[in-house]
Amino acid sequence: MDPTFSFEAELWPWQSETATAWVFANVPEDESDEIAEIVPERRGFGSVKVRARILTEEKTVEWTTSVFPSKEYGCYMLPIKKDVRRKAKVDTGDTAAFELDILIS
After folding, report:
1. Is the separation of the CB atoms in 64 and 12 below 8 Å?
2. Residue 68 belongs to a domain with what CATH number?
3. Contacts with 39 (C-beta within 8 Å, 6 or more apart), sequence order
4. Coil, strand or helix at 2
């Protein structure tokens, strides 16, 4: 069974000179440390494949993506696509409840 992590985090925008705005939520440091321990072999850019869920009072929105390590923040960052934010009715500045299944197999 794939390990699951639950947490709350604020959605925040990230922009670069070459990319349009991306929206992320930071996986808390303790959970990020546990993920790094249980997934010794990571994919490109140190990413870890996950099944993510945003849990709201109205519904649960699920999607598959990867979390990416950030040296700047000292944790993994979860990208949240516009379509997912729209379905969950959340956006930058909102705090949301998340669940992550780490896809090891």
Report:
1. no
2. 2.40.30.100
3. 48, 102, 104
4. coil
* Six token digits for residue 72: 């700047």
Do 99 and 31 touch, CB atoms closer than 8 A?
A: no
What pTM value is reported for the model?
Answer: 0.89
From residue 54, how far is each of 4, 6, 38, 67, 102 by CA, in Å? 13, 10, 23, 14, 15
Instruction: Express each pLDDT in 18-33 by its tens digit.
Output: 556 789 999 999 999 9
Q: Is the dihedral of CA 75, 35, 44, 21 positive or negative?
A: negative
**Structural domain boundaries, residue 89:** 4-14+21-102
Number of domains in the chain: 1
What single string gives the DSSP state of each residue in 5-61? Answer: EEEEEEEEEE--SSS--EEEEEPPHHHHHHHHHH--S--GGG-EEEEEEEE-SS-EE
Q: Rounded CA gap, 105 and 91, in Å?
A: 31
